[in-house]
Amino acid sequence: MRFEVFRGESPGADERRAVCSWYADAREGVLYFGVSAFWQGLRDSGSPLGVLEGQGPQVIGRFDLERRAFLPALTLARGRAAGVWDVLAHENGRLYFSVFYGVSGFRDLESGAVQRFDQLGKGLNEWARGPDGTLFVTRYAAAENTGGALLWIDLDGNLLGQFSLGSEGSDERVLPKSVAWDPGRQLAWVTSDQLPAAAGASGHPTLVLDLAGAQVARIDDVEVQILAFAGDATGYFAVATGNGLELFVLPPGNPKADLAGARRILLDPLFDRRLDFAQGIEVGETGRVLVTTWSGRVFAVDPKSFAVETIAFPRLHAGGLYYAAATYRGTTCASYCAGVGVVCTADE
Q: Cβ-count burial of 292 within 10 angstroms (0-12 exposed, 13-18 middle, 19+ buried)?
């Protein structure tokens, strides 16, 4: 299979080496992605706070999936500003963005106006649609080195609920990462990192919460790395098990909030979880599921036959990471974190 590699302009005169493409979301033929210098800052300084040194403008990148060309980036702030992590391209015409070391918010695509959610504070991580036109966003960590929380908000950033995670009375810190809304069971599923890891547990529990914030289930025996639910309430979970990566498919209709009844599909029998991670998952309009790993192996799963097609994207640079892939009119493109980059399958 052939591929095309596209390079975008890095914002700021001194940022060409440092920033790269992060989480991405596609809508109406455009791939939107965060632009962050997190990984380069971590490599240079040995600390996550290294990203705060030498930042340039704060932008959201854009790539035209039909023309296979970069569009001008959308500037959110100029001067020194923390980078954008996750983006959600909403059908209301807004791009919701998270800035872990700054204040998150949205940009209106029609007017260009930027609205910040100052009331939500810092530390926000990943977005997901919630019930009845609402949103979820995870707070990976809070001040004073405490654990994170799941925030439930309306489309204007007004807080509907803030749910702390972890066991009450224990010294553990549960740091939430990805969240997905289960429309069948009316529950939010949240992946996390657990510090310190409990003996015998994966160290990355998945917590299941109702809309009152009550924990109705906790999955500790396997590591769910990324998850999504389709409109028919079918759940898709990329799970690291032993040396493999599997897709757990949880059918709708079962009231239990666990993975016991899931169908298991092997994606990669030699998945190196020390160096690799399932970072992106997308359920397309046809129901085809894409699971994107850092290493560039994108697994496309047919929703009916469950046949797996493996698309091995090229490893172009040492330390380069793939974040999220989307398919548009037969072409699959993925955001590539090695500078501002997007890589696409090419017509044969």
A: buried
- Residue 348 pairs in a beta bridge with none
Strands 340-345 vs 20-27: parallel, antiparallel or unpaired = unpaired
Contacts of 4 (CB under 8 A, 6+ apart): 68, 343, 344, 345, 346
Rounded CA separation 27/94 (Å):
11
Q: What is the pLDDT of residues 250-269, one digit of tens each?
A: 999 888 899 998 999 999 99
pLDDT tens for 49-98 read 656 655 678 999 999 999 999 999 999 998 777 899 999 999 999 999 99
Question: Could you give phi then psi for residue 105, rounded to 5 degrees?
Answer: 170, -145
Is residue 48 within 8 A of residue 16, CB to CB? The reply is no
| CA pseudo-torsion sign 150, 154, 155, 156 | negative
Q: How many residues does the chain have?
A: 348
Separation of alpha carbons 1 and 311, rounded Å = 8
Sheet of 114-116: strand order equals 87-89, 94-97, 105-108, 114-116
- CA dihedral for 66, 276, 268, 202, sign (positive or negative): negative
Q: Which of 132, 48, 139 is nearest to 86 (CA)?
A: 139
- DSSP annotation of 262: -
